[in-house]
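Researcher: We plan to redesign the surface later, but first we want a full-length starting point. Tokens attached.
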């Protein structure tokens, strides 16, 4: 198994943010939303999306659940600019609030969300425990957690093959980011150890594809 190689935490370059926002994640994002809604629709009232990127998942959620309220945060100001344009252009400004904010120390009252979701954030963090501590602080009792992240391949060669399989025709910057993100991702054993160390024993982690992990459960 290849050792983890951390990557840059914040996508603060306008060029990288635009490349990411322009990529074709429609199927992956829709699968995220479909799985979330199928399993936990009754919990999706006041939702926090950490590391929202261009806000594609909040927009898809707002389409699926009209009365949902989503607070979506990202550490990249460039990404938040793109997200705000998307949210406004599609008419979801009343349901989706966007904020540039960083882990740890998100500016919200403790235990104020019914659901905490995140897609492809965990591998960006130098210290993954900041995410789990934030989850414990901000989630209500009997709230849900639904987090999907990349799974680190066993070798750099496998990582290269994954990039070519799923991003062959994408922008070169995106392919480089994807490769670096795969090497920065965690294994299933590492995520399970994170959950154990943080005391989040109600959450379970499982491999759901050749490149993704799902961490979910009711707190």
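Model: Full-length starting sequence:
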């Amino acid at each position: 198994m290849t050792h983890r190689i951390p990557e840059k935490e914040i996508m603060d370059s306008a060029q990288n943010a635009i490349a990411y926002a322009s990529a074709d994640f429609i199927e992956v994002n829709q699968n995220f939303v479909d799985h979330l809604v199928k399993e936990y629709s009754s919990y999706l009232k006041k939702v926090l999306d950490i590391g929202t990127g261009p806000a594609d998942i909040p927009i898809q959620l707002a389409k699926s659940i009209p009365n949902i309220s989503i607070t979506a945060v990202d550490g990249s100001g460039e990404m938040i600019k793109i997200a705000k344009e998307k949210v406004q252009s599609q008419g979801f400004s009343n349901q989706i609030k966007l904020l540039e904010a960083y882990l740890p120390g998100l500016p919200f009252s403790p235990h104020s969300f019914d659901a905490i979701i995140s897609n492809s954030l965990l591998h960006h963090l130098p210290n993954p425990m900041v995410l789990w501590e934030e989850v414990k602080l901000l989630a209500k009792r009997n709230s849900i957690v639904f987090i999907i992240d990349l799974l680190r391949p066993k070798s750099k060669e496998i990582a290269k093959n994954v990039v070519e399989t799923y991003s062959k025709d994408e922008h070169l910057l995106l392919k480089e980011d994807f490769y670096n993100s795969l090497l920065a991702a965690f294994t299933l054993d590492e995520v399970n150890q994170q959950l154990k160390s943080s005391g989040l024993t109600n959450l379970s982690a499982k491999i759901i594809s050749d490149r993704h992990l799902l961490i979910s459960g009711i707190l």
